[in-house]
Amino acid sequence: MTQASTNPGSDGFTASQAKASWSFLRGHLREYGILFALIAIMVFFQIATDGILLKPINLTNLVLQNSYIVIMAIGMLLVIVSGHIDLSVGSVLGFVGALAAVMIVQWDLPYLLAAVLCLAAGALIGMAQGFWVAYFRIPSFIVTLAGMLVFKGLTLWLLAGQSVGPFPAQFQLIASGFIPDIFGAEGLNLFSLVIGLVVATAILAFAIRTRMSQAKTGAPTEPFAFFAAKHGLIFVALVYMSWLMAGFRGLPNVFIVMALLIAIYSFVTSRTTIGRRIYAIGGNEKAATLSGINSQRLVFLTFANMGMLAALAGLVFAARLNTATPKAGVSFELDVIAAVFIGGASMAGGVGTVVGAVIGAFIMGVMNNGMSILGIGIDWQQCIKGLVLLAAVIFDVMNKKKG
Amino acid sequence: MPTILEMRGITKEFPGVKALNNVSLSVEEGEIHALVGENGAGKSTLMKVLSGVYPHGSYSGDIVFDGEVRAYRGIRDSEADGIIIIHQELALIPLLSIAENIFLGNERARGGIIDWRRTEARAAELLEQVGLRESPKTLVDDLGLGKQQLVEIAKALSKDVRLMILDEPTSSLNETDSRKLLDLLLEFKAKGMTSILISHKLNEISRVADTITVIRDGAAVSRLDCAEGISEGRIIRDMVGRSLDNRFPERVAHAREETALEVRNWTVRHPIHSERRVVDDVSFHVKRGEVLGIAGLMGAGRTELAMSLFGRSWGAGIEGEAWIGGARADLSTVRRAIDAGLAYVTEDRKTYGLVLDDTIRRNVPLAKLEAVADGLVVNRNREAEVAERYRKRLNIKSSSIEQEAVNLSGGNQQKVVLSKWLFADPDILILDEPTRGIDVGAKFEIYTVIRDLAASGKAIIVISSEMPELLGVTDRLYVMNEGRFVAEMATEEASQERIMTAIIKSGEEAA
Ligand SMILES: Nc1ncnc2c1ncn2[C@@H]1O[C@H](COP(=O)(O)OP(=O)(O)OP(=O)(O)O)[C@@H](O)[C@H]1O
Ligand SMILES: [Mg+2]
């Protein structure tokens, strides 16, 4: 570890910091284990693919390929934390893509209007399902299983079994566009790099501020060396990634959307009253209700939100393929749910983080990508992904028992 | 008498707490050995060590049972030796029958196929032994808590028990049921069975125990022989480390003229059997600054009354009016009830009170999260301050406010629930069995909190099955029986006999 250089001081101090960091890490293995797993997997594939994995073009691709899974994983995290599940997201994604194609390609609606209508449709679909789950206590597994079939069917009907496309160029930009380079430097999207730097610095500043205010009230904090190492690593990783991507065509538009969603939802889940209440509902719904929390409405909203994010993912996916096909979204729900569980959420509800779910999604994504580069067939890919999911959850459970 | 069990130098640590520190316990064959101590002293932990819930290797020290050192790796091992534990929280499966529950994991079967005739015949025998007149086919869900406790004991008896451990078996029973259960223990003792009894009810301990071991802060501080006539005061002194002169704070009347809450003709029907009126045309009031008690037997409808008032959280077809501060109050949802100034502290902390996997810090402000938030954003510093304040005020024994509720001792969990509602700062506070599982010292502290709240003008309603508690802390009492209020009295003029008479008389009138 590199903490020695960040803390000039006596050797005793360094040693005690290292020890404190190490024991802190052991105590919080559940939270950080998944991050290490992602790093390990990336290192593995980076070596195994002779450095192809982190080539700018591949990295960009990886982000694009995974964007819709990440977007839906964020919504799914909330659903799972509240103690439910949504099996319909893959079908909803396909349906919304089809809807967009019909509106834009066949009806010639302006694509912005169509996009807004599609998001609204997604939210409505979420509400329709959430209504039964929240207010009539129909198990979400069943309601959304029904939804999965229904929307798969409606997609087929809407497209009449055909693929519909292509989309206008501007619509495609949602998924395949890159942020413009306002500086216009040669061979490097400087603006992207600057954004990366600014975001990384902002995260660092935010972390330092939080730590200082915690220290003021004497709340427990991570050992300093651990804190420094962690945020140093995050900072370097972010800047490095944006530098890599800046070297290709810059940051993809979707990347910005994803980053915003991650930031917003992380904040909502960990810092706001609404987030707190959703966790309480997942942890013990009866106790939460008796504490004056309107659990029905919150569950309803969680599903509405999920529907909207699935619709957003549907737009991104359709724009990326540049066509809507009846096959779009098939079995995506499995990847999304797997990502959330790999990221440490609990089946019983009340546990899980947005960042964990996103990391989970990237673990799946990196494996997909890496294994494809290595030419491993889809058959083995499935097996390996299944085993990784199982291993992650077993690790989680064992860790909890030990604690 | 020979020594059947010796635990020597037991030390058990959890991350951040030493729950047991070099504790020794020795139990003689055929005695009833009581284990007492404050909340969080380590009683349950010691018994979990003994029964293998915490396996050999996760603690240090020796367990000697029947003259041999034992290393139990799980409950199965200790059960094989005849050590059976009945946990503080009952572990029956509600939708299985009595017989199925008794033989769960220990089925009467041949080649994997259950022999129902033998199961039911044996279950009937066991029920007979514990004096429970119910069909073995009855679902556990349909039994009251007292009867469920007897089923637990029948289950223990089905396993060739040599040493029975009962962790607070009477904490949720009323006096009649408690008495029955203790008589049963005495009966078993006469037949030569050994038992270890954990309880916070010292009168019970004095009645049945032969020997008492007092645990304080994870260490055994004394071993008292009851043959020498031990006073409750002596036990308390060893438990708390000082003597406690009064069990109740002094009662100063604070009742004011204004009525805080008035309920008129309140009727609540059973959610499934809608012809059953669980609360039947009840009218009552409570004044500001007054502590009102509701006495009654288990199943009288007191909890149902309270929960139906609190945002219709129980029951169906609710009729009646509630008036707060002279205006008709809308109590139709929990949120509205809270906004109208009401709070309800549940009797069932695990199901209705706590988010068990969350920390103290996150549980305490839950009912009034807005108060620790700036707009929509929770202010974690303020949240921590609040949790810390209540941890100190109610003396919640924990490593820090970051300890998860599930890892707290039973009594300390109760204090967390109480903190949550004290922080919500209601005008009318309904406390349902507020001191269940709470030690004597802490009880006094809670009574003091109740009296202080009354002094500051709040109205308090206490539902309790412990009559001394009602007589000690309230100003006025209602007696409830079978869904109706059958008597009202000033506490000064009340007595246990008067309350019981009211209950019995109303029962006769109804018949
Ligand atoms: N799994 C655990 N993790 C951390 N601390 C624990 C755990 N279990 C118990 N403790 C701590 O050990 C101490 C002893 O708890 P224990 O349950 O034995 O108390 P008790 O004497 O049974 O109290 P009560 O009368 O309230 O039931 C408490 O301070 C409790 O917080
Ligand atoms: Mg206990």
Helix and strand topology:
The complex is a heterodimer of chains A (403) and B (511).
Chain A: H1 3-6, H2 11-27, H3 29-48, H4 56-81, H5 89-106, H6 111-136, H7 140-159, H8 169-176, H9 190-217, H10 224-246, H11 253-271, H12 273-283, H13 285-290, H14 295-321, H15 332-342, H16 354-373, H17 378-402
Helix pairs in contact in A: 2-10, 3-16, 4-10, 4-11, 4-14, 4-15, 4-16, 5-6, 5-7, 5-14, 6-7, 6-14, 8-14, 9-10, 11-12, 15-16, 15-17
Chain B: E1 3-14, E2 17-28, E3 32-37, H1 43-50, E4 60-65, E5 68-70, H2 75-80, E6 83-86, H3 98-102, E7 109-110, E8 113-114, H4 116-129, H5 145-157, E9 163-167, H6 175-190, E10 194-198, H7 202-208, E11 211-216, E12 219-225, H8 232-240, E13 259-269, E14 277-287, E15 291-296, H9 302-309, E16 316-324, E17 327-328, H10 334-339, E18 342-345, H11 349-353, H12 360-363, E19 373-374, E20 377-378, H13 380-393, H14 410-424, E21 428-432, H15 440-455, E22 459-463, H16 467-473, E23 476-481, E24 484-490, H17 496-510
Parallel strand pairs in B: 3-10, 3-11, 6-9, 9-10, 15-22, 15-23, 18-21, 21-22
Antiparallel strand pairs in B: 1-2, 1-4, 4-5, 7-8, 11-12, 13-14, 13-16, 16-17, 19-20, 23-24
Bound molecules: adenosine-5'-triphosphate (ATP) and magnesium ion (MG).
Keywords:
heterodimer; A: mainly alpha; ABC transporter involved in vitamin B12 uptake, BtuC; 17 helices; B: 511 residues; Rossmann fold; 3 domains; six-stranded mixed β-sheet; globular; binds adenosine-5'-triphosphate; binds magnesium ion
